[in-house]
UniProtKB/TrEMBL annotation, chain A:
Residues 91-221 form the B12-binding domain. The keyword Metal-binding applies. One of its GO terms (biological process) is homocysteine metabolic process. It holds the Pfam family B12-binding_2. It comes from freshwater metagenome. Keywords: Cobalt, Metal-binding. GO terms for cellular component: cytosol. Belongs to the methylamine corrinoid protein family. GO terms for molecular function: cobalamin binding; metal ion binding; methionine synthase activity. This is Unannotated protein. Residues 1-91 form the B12-binding N-terminal domain.
TrEMBL record, chain B:
InterPro entries: Dihydropteroate_synth-like_sf, Met_Synthase/Corrinoid, Pterin-binding_dom. Belongs to the vitamin-B12 dependent methionine synthase family. Gene3D superfamilies: Dihydropteroate synthase-like (3.20.20.20). This is Unannotated protein. It comes from freshwater metagenome. GO terms for cellular component: cytosol. Keywords: Cobalamin, Cobalt, Metal-binding, Methyltransferase, Transferase. Coiled coil: none annotated. GO terms for molecular function: cobalamin binding; metal ion binding; methionine synthase activity. Pfam families: Pterin_bind. One of its GO terms (biological process) is homocysteine metabolic process. Residues 20-265 form the Pterin-binding domain.
């Protein structure tokens, strides 16, 4: 198999969420001397971008997005240690959780998939994430961004609580805060003092990249 | 076990030997931007349209949720309930996770309401069950706790048992407890609906309780949702589901529920089924 065929195969199989084939082709590519960054940036990321675009247009449905994400995750498990060895800078680190009192996770998981698909390192804290757990994760992983998800109007106020706790812990200036979820609006995000909001998974990725670029530019200025 | 809900002009009975109770889900601003804006501006007129459509569609009970961010939810919910009761006799399912809103709704409601909802979390039950007791309402309880939604049917049964004990300790009649066995989308987990069905079966066998759930959840993220919802409900009914908070405006879904009533023996001799047919025939003689 030529490198070109492997890249095309990886792209096609990721698009249809064929996890065993994606894993197989990833290993094959590596054994034939392809770089982990080539596999990631030339096949997996473009495939996930296409999945996101189709989902946004309404051509792809939730299960298709989830299995594409799983297929990519399987390959990333193999690629990550190799990428770390090469010392390539990650696009960014993202700590994500559904707030305390809320057990909804589909939207959050879709955003995670798109973030991983765009090359972010995602640390998922799951559902019912207490303020203490958010703080501990920000301290431990020192992410570029912390994302909070809420699906209920009654759990949205936890954004404010979490923001307050971040400030109290002296971490507010050290991390970008993004919020989202079905009932959340830009207006609400502003009201709680978040740095960013997005209405859907693809927009969330664009927003995350934008906010990191702004922050890095400010630091270098 | 019969759960009886009422308004001044109507009584609805939920039970394993009764026709399925359709709770219309539409009066809910979640995901409805224009409705939200109107409610914020104090314009409740959309509710009139939603009531009419659901009554015409065949709802037995109407769910009323006024969860609009950055508003006075208790006042809004009380106004909405008064409005709904002024236009229909159908009993109401008062839907909020804000206990002040539930109390405001219960205080103005005339009749015996269904409260939606409480979870198996101790702190939630301590706040909401006294309200249910005080107003003599019925209550929907979700068998999840502090750790999230249980992945297995057995865990949902265990939390149901905990809820039953709590209900007994507050001296609320057990027939006023309606369990929501938690319906999740099959789009995110191929086993999700099977687990819900197993939970329904186990809860019916052990406690004989009435059960309701958010039926439209099962099809989230998938195409042709009406067909999936219409297929799901009869399966759930055959496992012991006695009610659902559901789309009451789509004939395909309501017909499928009423057909299952007849097929499962809760519409003996097809009185309701034939009545619906005659009503449709009268409304549209050429069909």
């Amino acid at each position: 198999m030529s490198a070109e065929e492997i890249i095309k195969g990886l792209y096609d199989e990721t698009l249809v969420g064929n996890a065993p084939a994606v894993l197989e082709l990833t290993k094959r590519g590596l054994s034939e001397g392809m770089g982990p960054d080539t596999i990631l940036f030339e096949a997996l990321i473009p495939a996930l971008e296409e999945v996101g675009a189709r989902f946004e247009r309404g051509d792809f449905f939730v299960p298709e997005m989830l299995i594409a994400g799983k297929a990519m995750s399987g390959a990333l498990d193999v690629l990550r240690p190799l990428l770390a060895e090469t010392g390539a800078e990650t696009i960014g680190t993202f700590v994500m959780g559904t707030v305390k009192g809320d057990v909804h996770d589909i939207g959050k998981n879709l955003v995670n998939i798109m973030l991983e698909g765009a090359g972010f390192e995602v640390i998922d804290l799951g559902v019912q994430t207490s303020p203490e757990k958010f703080i501990a994760a920000v301290e431990e992983h020192k992410p570029d961004i912390v994302g909070m998800s809420a699906f209920l109007t009654t759990t949205m106020p936890m954004f404010k609580v979490n923001m307050h706790e971040l400030t109290k812990a002296g971490l507010r200036d050290k991390v970008i805060v993004m919020v989202g979820g079905a009932p959340v609006t830009q207006e609400y995000a502003d009201a709680v003092g978040a740095d960013g909001y997005a209405a859907d998974a693809s927009t969330a990725v664009r927003k995350a990249k934008e906010l990191i670029a702004l922050k890095r530019a400010a630091q270098n200025a | 076990m019969h759960t009886v809900l009422s308004s001044p002009g109507k009584t609805v009975t939920m039970g394993h030997d009764q026709p399925f109770v359709i709770i219309g889900e539409r009066i809910n601003p979640t995901g409805r931007k224009i409705f939200q804006e109107k409610l914020r501006a104090g314009d409740l007129s959309t509710i009139n349209i939603d009531v009419e459509a659901q009554v015409a569609g065949g709802a037995d009970v109407l769910d009323v949720n006024m969860g609009v961010p950055l508003t006075d939810e208790p006042a809004l919910l009380a106004s909405a309930i008064k409005l709904v009761q002024s236009i229909t006799d159908l009993p109401i399912c008062i839907d909020s996770s804000v206990h002040e809103a539930l109390e405001a709704g219960l205080a103005v409601y005339q009749g015996k309401a269904l409260v939606n909802s409480v979870t198996g979390e101790d702190d939630r039950m301590e706040i909401i069950l006294p309200l249910v007791k005080k107003y003599g309402a019925a209550i929907i309880a979700l068998p999840n706790d502090e750790t999230g939604i249980p992945a297995t049917a057995k865990e949902r049964l265990d939390i149901t048992e905990k809820i039953v004990r709590a209900i007994e300790s507050y001296k609320i009649p057990l027939e006023d407890l309606v369990i929501d066995p938690l319906a999740m989308t099959v789009g995110a987990d191929p086993e999700a609906v099977k687990i819900t069905l197993e939970a329904i079966h186990l809860i019916k066998e052990k406690f004989g309780l009435n059960m309701t759930l958010g039926a439209s959840n099962v099809s989230f993220g998938l195409p042709s949702r009406h067909a999936l919802n219409a297929a799901f409900l009869p399966i759930a009914m055959s496992h012991g589901l006695t009610s659902a908070v559901m789309d009451a405006r789509t004939p395909e879904i309501v017909n499928s529920v009423r057909a299952a009533d007849l097929l499962l023996g809760t519409d003996a001799w097809g009185g309701n089924w034939i009545g619906r047919f005659r009503a449709q025939q009268a409304a549209n003689p050429s069909a």
